[in-house]
Design a protein that fits this description.
Blueprint: H1 2-10, E1 16-21, E2 25-31, E3 41-46, E4 51-55, E5 65-66, H2 86-99, E6 104-107, E7 110-114, H3 125-131, H4 143-157, E8 161-167, H5 173-188, H6 196-211, E9 212-213, E10 221-222, E11 225-232, E12 238-246, H7 264-271, H8 290-293, H9 305-318, H10 323-340, E13 345-346, E14 352-353, H11 359-368, H12 372-380, E15 381-385, E16 390-394, H13 397-427, E17 435-441, H14 453-483, H15 497-504, H16 509-518, H17 524-535, E18 542-543, E19 551-556, E20 560-565, H18 569-574, H19 579-586, H20 591-596, H21 638-654, E21 657-664, H22 677-687, H23 689-698, E22 702-705, H24 706-712, H25 726-737, E23 744-746, E24 750-753, H26 757-915, H27 918-926, H28 928-1105, H29 1123-1137, H30 1143-1148, H31 1151-1232, H32 1243-1281, H33 1283-1289, H34 1292-1301, H35 1305-1318, H36 1331-1338, H37 1345-1348, H38 1353-1408, H39 1412-1437, H40 1443-1486, E25 1519-1520, H41 1526-1535, H42 1539-1545, H43 1550-1564, H44 1568-1588, H45 1593-1612, H46 1617-1620, H47 1625-1628, H48 1638-1673, H49 1703-1719, H50 1724-1747, H51 1755-1775, H52 1782-1785, H53 1787-1797, H54 1803-1812, H55 1818-1827, ...
Parallel strand pairs: 7-21, 8-17, 8-21
Antiparallel strand pairs: 1-2, 1-5, 2-3, 3-4, 6-7, 9-10, 11-12, 11-17, 13-14, 15-16, 18-19, 19-20, 22-24, 23-24, 25-26
Amino acid sequence: MNMNRELEYMFVQCARVWIPDAEEVWKSAELTKDFKNGDASLQLMLEDGTSIEHKLDPKTKNLPYLRNPDILVGENDLTALSYLHEPAVLHNLKVRFIDSKLIYTYCGIVLVAINPYETLGIYGTDIINAYSGQNMGDMDPHIFAVAEEAYKQMARDERNQSIIVSGESGAGKTVSAKYAMRYFATVSGSTSEANVEQKVLASNPIMEAIGNAKTTRNDNSSRFGKYIEIGFDTRYRIIGANMRTYLLEKSRVVFQADEERNYHIFYQLCASSHLPEFKTLKLSSANDFLYTRQGRSPVIQGVDDTKELSTTRNAFTLLGINESYQMGLFQVLAAILHLGNVEIKDKDSDSSLIPPNNRHLTAFCELVGVTYQDMTQWLCHRKLKTATETYVKTLPCLQATNARDALAKHIYAKLFNWIVEHVNKALITNIKQHSFIGVLDIYGFETFEINSFEQFCINYANEKLQQQFNMHVFKLEQEEYMKEQIPWTLIDFYDNQPCINLIEAKMGILDLLDEECKMPKGSDDSWAQKLYNTHLKTCSLFEKPRMSNRAFIIQHFADKQVEYQCEGFLEKNKDTVNEDQINVLKASKFDLLVELFQDEEKATSPTGQVPGTGGRTRLSIKPDKGRDKSSKEHKKTVGCQFRNSLQMLMDTLNATTPHYVRCIKPNDFKLAFSFDPKRAVQQLRACGVLETIRISAAGFPSRWTYQEFFSRYRVLMKQKDVLSDKKLTCRNVLEKLVEDQDKYQFGKTKIFFRAGQVAYLEKLRADKLRVACIRIQKTIRCWLARKKYLRKRSAAITIQRFTRGYQARCLAKFMRRTQAATIIQKYQRMYMERKRYKQKQAAALVMQTILRAYMARQKYQGLVREHNAVIIQKRVRGWLARCWYKRCLVSLVYLQCCFRRMKARRELKKLKIEARSVEHFKKLNKGMENKIMQLQRRIDEQSKDNRSINEKLVSLETSSTAERERMRGELSRLRGVEEDAKNKGNQVTSLLEQLEKLRKELSSTQKEKKTIEDWAQTYRDEMEKMVSELKDQNCSLKKEKDDLNRLIQEQSQQMTEKMARAIVEKTQQLETDLNEERSRYQNLLTEHRRLEEKYDDLKEAMVSSNVSKPGHRRTDSTHSSNESEYTYNSEYAELEEGSRAAEDVTRGMDTSLTLKLQKRLTELEQEKQSLRNELENREDQFQRARARDDVEFKKARGAELEYESLKRQELESENKKLKHDLVEIRRSLLGNAATGAGAPGSPAYKVVLEQLNASCEELEVRKEEVLILRSQLVSQKEAMHHKDEKETMTEPSAYVEDVSKLKDAGELKQAYIGLKDTNRSPRFMRKPLEVSDLLSRLRSAAPDFHKLNEDGELWLVNQGLKETIRLLEHQLQTQRRGYDSEVESLRGELQNVKEENNRQQQLLAQNLQLPPEARIEASLQHEITRLTNENLELLAEDPTASREARVIILRRMVDLMEQLEKQDRTIRKLKKQLKVYSKRIGEMGAGQTEGQTSPGQMVDEPIHPVNIPRREKDFQGMLEYKKEDELKLVKNLILELKPRGVAVNLIPGLPAYILFMCLRHADYVNDDQKVRTLLTSTINSIKKILKKRGDDFETVSFWLSNTCRFLHCLKQYSGDEAFIKHNTQRQNEHILSNFDLAEYRQVISDLAIQIYQQLIKCMENILQPMIVSGMLEHETIQGVSGVKPTGLRKRTSSIVDEGTYTLDSILRQLSAFHSTMCQHGTDPELIKQVVKQQFYIIGAVTLNNLLLRKDMCSWSKGMQIRYNVSQLEEWLRDKGLMTCGAKETLEPLIQAAQLLQVKKKTDEDAEAICSMCLALTTAQIVKVLNLYTPVNEFEERVSVAFIRTIQTRLRDRCESPQLLMDTKMIYPVTFPFNPSSLALETIQIPSSLNLSFLTRV
C-alpha cells in the first residue's frame, strides 16, 4: 500500500524517467500524464518534443528508471545519487565530462578516470600541494586524492597500500600510475642526497621507451604489466623502489599490425641516427627496417622521437647507467633491427641459404661481436641430438625465418630484463624499508579481431583482479553496516570463480596447454580438440565458434565474450629458441651481450627475470638448482610462469589495503572530450563500476549523519517537532514523512536510506520551499504595488504645490519690476545733475593748483642753491685736514717700524745665542710656568685697554651714525618735495597747451559737424547692413571655433589621460620589476638558507658516523668582515679538519655529490692560497708605505706643528673679537632702526640682518684663509732654518736620551697626547699604538731599543716635547712684537667693516625698491664687484707679484682647506680614543711606586708627576665587556633568552640595543677584531636559535623585531647623511667613529629577510588548518546553505563541532599574531607587510580549495564567502591596517564569490562578468562556471554556450594559464628605515638578563 502510494507520488506529470535506446543506450523522457496503479503504459515526451507511449512489461510490470533531481546531477561521488542505476551513472559521468570538463569521479571506493585525449593543467605542483594533507572527500575527485589517501592510511594504520590502475588499452592507465608516483615523490621527499624520488620518476621514460608501443587504440600503450613498490622509512619518506614486470609482448618485436608500431626505442634510435655517436650503428630511417615498417605508421603525431631519446638517455644517466652501457644497449637494439633485415632464401624444399656478403648480417655481426660464418651457419641449420649421435639438419626458409625472429625476440627479452634489473638496483638503498605503496599498472580486458595467447593471459589476469575487487567491495559494505549496527542481509553478487576455474583449474585451459606442449607431436589443432572434448559440454562459459575448428570462445566477466584463435598458442607457450644461435652469442666479444646471457643456464625460461637484491620476490620462479643444465624439456612454460607470478601478485594485493582507479576510454577515435555512451557503458560493466553500484543499491546507499539530516530537512519540521536531541527529532520526522520503515534504518551516527528515498525527501523539501516562495512573492508584490501607488500620490501633490508656487512667483516678479523701474529713473536724473556740478568744480581746482605750484618751485630752488654751497665748503675743508693728518701718520709709523725692527733684530740674535746653551734651556724649562703666568696677566691688561678703546669707538660711531641718519632722512624728504614741484609745473604747462589746442579744434569741428552728420547718416545705413552680415559670419565662426575648441579640449583630455595611463602603467611595471627583483633575491636567500641547512645536516651526519681527529684549528688572518665569508671560511676549516676522518663516509655517498664536494674543496683551497698571496702583498705594500711615510714625516713635521698652534691661537682670539664686533654692530642697527621700515621684525630689518650675517660669515672665511697663508709662510721659513737640526734628531742616540727623560706614566701620557695632537694629518694616519704595549716596552728589565723604537714611538714623543717648547718660546717672542700692530690692524679692519656695513645698508635700501627678480640680480652683481675689488687690493699691495704666484697661492689655499677639513674630521674621531688612552695611562701610572724608574732614566734628576684634573663624564651609551665574556653575552642575550618575559616586562628591542651598545664600545676603542667577532657571533646565534625554535611564532617574531631594530641602529648611527638627519643632537654624538659597517648591514638585512620568511612559514603552518574550515566549510550565516547528499567519500561537516575551526578562530589567531608583533616592537610598516602576506595566504588557499571543490561552488556559498571577507575587512579596520594592501590580496576571492552570485544567462551578464573579474584568470573564471552547482531546485546550471561566450570574450587576455594561486609565494619584504627616539644613555639593563659583566661607559 505504501509502495503504491510512493509510486503514485513520484510518477506524476512532469516527472522525468529513463528509457532504453539503441543509439544512446538511455534516453530521457518526461511524463505527460500521471501514472495510476494498473496502467499498462506511460505517456511520455522526449527532450526533442516527440510524444511516445512506453508500454510496460506485462509480466514484471517494471516501471522505467526515475531521473535524479537536477541538484544531484554532476555529483563528485556516484553513490551520492538518490537513484542508483546504470542510466544515472552514465548521465552523471557524461555531464561531468562534457559540460564541466571533469575527468575524475568517485564511485564509492573506486576512482573513475575518463581519458580526455587532451593535456590538462591539473597535475602541477600547485595542485599536488593543494591535495596534500586533505581528506579524500573534501576535495574534488583526483588521482592525487587517491594517492594522498593511500599515503595517509600507510602512515596512520601502519599497513602497506596498493593502487590498482586498470582499464582498456588507451584508457590512460600508464599516465594515471605515473601521476600517482609523481605525487608520492613530491609530497614525501627522500631521506638522503641520492634523489630517490627523482630516480623513481626517471624510471618511467625508460620503461615507456622499451615497453610501450603505439596500437590502434592508444599511441602509448603499455605492452607489459608492472607493479612498482615505492619504499618508505619510519618517517614516511621515499628510500627506494622495486619494479616487477609481467608478460612482455615479445611478438611485437618482429610483427606489428596495421596502424601500429614496434616499441618506441627503435623509432627513437632511427630518428637520432644522424647524431655523431650513432654513426657506428649504421641506422637509417625506420621505413628501411622490416621490424619497424610493418605497421606502416612510423610517426606519432605530436611526438618528437629525437627529443624522446634524449629524455631516455638522461633518465639512464640519472639511474647510474653510464654512457658506455647506454651505447652498448643501443648497439644491441640496432643489431636486432639489422637482424630483421637479413634475407633468407630457399635453396631447395628442405634447406635455405643467406646470400653472401649480406650487409645487414655483416652489420649485425660487427655490432654483437660474432663471426659472420657462425651466424650464417646456424641461422639456416640446427642440431638434432639423439641418445648416441648429434646431427646437423638444414632448415627450410620458413623455419629459418621463424628461428631468426625467435632469436630477435629472445635478445630483446634479455635486454628488457637486464634494464629492469639495473633500474631496480638503482632504486634500492641500504636503508631499512618500513612500509611501501604499490602501484599496479596492468592491462585491462583486450578484444581484437584476432585474439591470441597474449590476450588470453591479459584477460585471465583481469578475471583474477575483478574477483579480488568484488570481494573487497562486499567486505567494506558489510563492515559499514556492522559498525553502525544495521541489520545485514546477504546480497547476491556476480562471482567469476567459474571462469577462473575454467582457465587455471585442473584440466583447465592452461593445464591442457602445458600437457600438449609436452607431447612430441603436439599441435594447436590437437589442443583445440582436447578443449572441445573437455569443456564444451561441461562448462557453460566455454563455447565453440560455428565456422571454425581452431578457435574457442570464453564468456568473461560482465557478459564479455572473447573468441581466441588457437594458432600459435603452443609455440608462444613453449617460447623456444635455437640453442646453437645462443651459444654463438655467448661466445661474443661484446661484453654486454655476454652479460645478458651469462645466467641462461640458471633461468627457468628465457622470459623469466633475474631475481633482484633485497629479498623481494620477482616474476620468474627459480627451478631446482640440482637439475641438470641440459634438461631443457622440464623447464616451465610461459603460461605456468604467468599463473605463478599472478598468484604472487594477488597474495601481495591481499596483504595490502587496495585503492582502485578505473580508467575509461570515452571513444575509439581519440577525440578530445568526446563521449560515446555505448563504449563507456561497456567499460563500466566490464571494470566493475556498475557492480559496485548494484551492491550499494541493494542495501542502503544514501547515508546522512543526524546533524546533516537535521540541517538539510529542517524546513520539513514544525517548531514543536524540534527537540534538543537531534537524533530523536530525526526519528520523529522520518516516521511522519516515510511510513514504510524498511526504506530507512537508524544507525549509531548515521541514517541509512534505500535508493530513491533521498529523491523523495528532496521533492517534499522542494514543494515546501515552493509554497514558501509563493507566499513570499505574494507579500512582496503587494508591498511593491502599494509603494508604487503612494509614490504616484505623492508626485501629484508635489506637482500641484509647484504649480501654485510658480504662479505666485510670477505675480511677485511683475510687482518688483515696476518698482525697480521707478527707482532707476530717479537715480538716473540725479546722476546727470551731479556729474555736471563735478566738472565745474574740477576745472576751478586745477587752475588754483597750477598757480600755487609755480610759486612753491621758485622758493625751493633758492633754498637748494644755498644748501649746496654750504656742503661744498664743508667737504673741501675736511679733505684738506685729512690729507695733512695722513701724511703725518705715515711718517710716524715709518719711524716706529725702523726703530722696532732694529731692536727686534738685536733681541733675536741674543735669543739665538742663548737657545744654543744647555743652561739656558734648563732655565727656560724651569721658569716656563712663571713666564706663562706673567704673559697671561699682561694679555689680560692689554685686553682691558683694548676693550675700553673699543667702547669709546662704538659710542662715537653710534652718535655719528644717528646724526647721519637724521640728515639723510631730511635730505630724502626735501628731494621728494622737489620732485613733486617739478611734476606739478610740467602738468600746468601741458594743460595750458592742451586748452589752446582744444579751442582751435572746437571751431574746426563745428564747421565739419554738419557735413559729417550728412555723411554719417549714409554711412550708418551701410554699416548697419555690414554689421548684420558680420554678425552672421561671426556666429558661424564662433560655432566653428567652439567646435574646434571642444575637439582640441577632447583631444588634449584624451592625450592627458593616455599619458597618465602610460605613466601609471610604466610606474606599475617598474614597481613590478622591482618586486620581482626583490623576490628573486629573497628566493635566492631562501635557497641559500636551505643549502646551508642541508650542509649542516650532512656535516652532522659525517660527524656522527666518524670521530674527527684532534687538531689545531687555524683562523685565516685575512678574514673578511662580510658575515657570509666568515661563516663560509669557518665551515671550510671544519670541513678540512674532518675530511680525513670522513673519507670512508664520502666513499659511500652518492657519486655526483662527492664530485661536487671535491670541486668545491679545490676552489676553496685556491681561494685560500690567493688570500694568503694577497696578505703577503699587502704586508709588503704596508712596509714600503711605512718607510715612505717616515721620510715624509721628517720633511713635513715642523710645518704641521706650526700650522696647528697658529691656527688655534689666532682663531680663538679673532673669534672673540669678531663676536664682540658683531654684538656692537647689531646694537647700532637696533638703535638706527627706530624709524619706519627699519623697525625690528619688518622685512627690511630681516634683510639687513641676513646681509650682515652673510658678510660676517664671509669675513670669517677670509680671515681663516689669511691665517692659513700666514702659517704656511712661517712653517716654510722655520723648516729652512732648522733643517740641520732636524737631521740630527733622527739618530738612534737621541731616542735613548729622550726616553731617559720620561720618568713616569704621567709624562709619557702627556707626551703621547701631544704627539696625537700633532700627528693627525692623513699622511701620518696609522694604526694607533696601544698604551699598554708602550708601557710594557719602557718598563721591561732589559729593553731592546731597536725593538722598542721599531715604530718610532719614542722619537715621536721626544720630538713632540721639543716642538712644544720651541713653539712656546716663539709665541712669547712674537706676541710682544705683534700685539701693538695687531691692535692697529684690528682697528683698521673694524673701520673697514663699518664702512662695508654702511655700503651694505645703502645697497639694501636700493634693492628694496627694486622688483624681486632685479633685486636678486643686483645682489649678485654687487657680490662680484666686491670680490673683484678685494683681488685688486691684494695685487696693489705687491705690484711686483705675477699672476702665476697668485694662482699658486690660490691652489695652495684650496689644498690647505681640504687638509684642514680632513684633519678636523680625524680630530673628532680620535678625541674619544685619546681620552681613553689617557685614562688608562693615568690608572696604570697611579699603581706604580714613586721610586720606580724607566730603564733609561737619570737617577739624580727628580721627577715631578703632573696631575691633570678631569671632569666627571656622563654615561655615553656604551657597554664594555671582556673578550672572554663574548660567549656568555651571546648565550644570555640570545640563546637562553625567553621572548615572552622580555616582551612583557622590558622595552621593545632591548637585546638589539644592548648588542649595539656593545658594538659601539668596540668601535670606540677601534678594535676591529672585536667588532667582527661580536657581529658574527650574533648572526650565527640568531640563526641557531631560529633553527632550534623555528616553529615558534613568538620566538621568530621576537628576533625579527630585534634584528630589524639592530639594523636600524646600524643605519641611524652610521654617520650617513640620509640617516643622521632624523637624529637628535645627543644621538649624533653617538655616531660610530672608526668603522664603516655597510657590508654588515647588508648581511643583517639578508638575515632579517630569512627570519621574515621563517615567520611567514611558521604563520602559514598555524593558519593552514583553519582557512578552509573557517572560510569555506563553516556556515557563518546559519541556514543559508543546506547540506547536499554525500556519497561514500564523506566531506568535512560544515556544522560547528568541538574542535572545528570557524571564522572567529581565524580572527582570534590574526589578533594573536598582531598583538605578539606589537608587543615585540615590530616596525609598523613590517607589520603591514606581514598582515598583507597573511591575507594573501587566506585568500589564495580559500580560492584554490574553491576551484577544486565542486560542492562549494554555489550561490549560497558565495554569500558566505563575501560575509567572511567583510569580517576580515572589519578586522583590518579595527587594527588600522586598511592601507597596508591586505584587502587587495583578497580581490580574487571576492570576485570569485561575486561570480557565484551574479546572473549567468545573457550576453549582458557575460560582459558584466568579464568587466568584473579582472583579478581572476580566464582559467579560473571558466573553472568556477564549470563547477557551479545548484543547491536548490530554484537555481539553474550554467549553460555550455554561456561558458563558451565567456571564453570567447576573454581569449585576448594576456595572462598565465595557471589555474591555482601560488600559496608559497611570498611578497618581497622591505625594511623602511625607522629611527629610534630612545636615547642610548637612558637604557637600563635589568638584572634578570644576567649581564652583570657588562660595564657602562
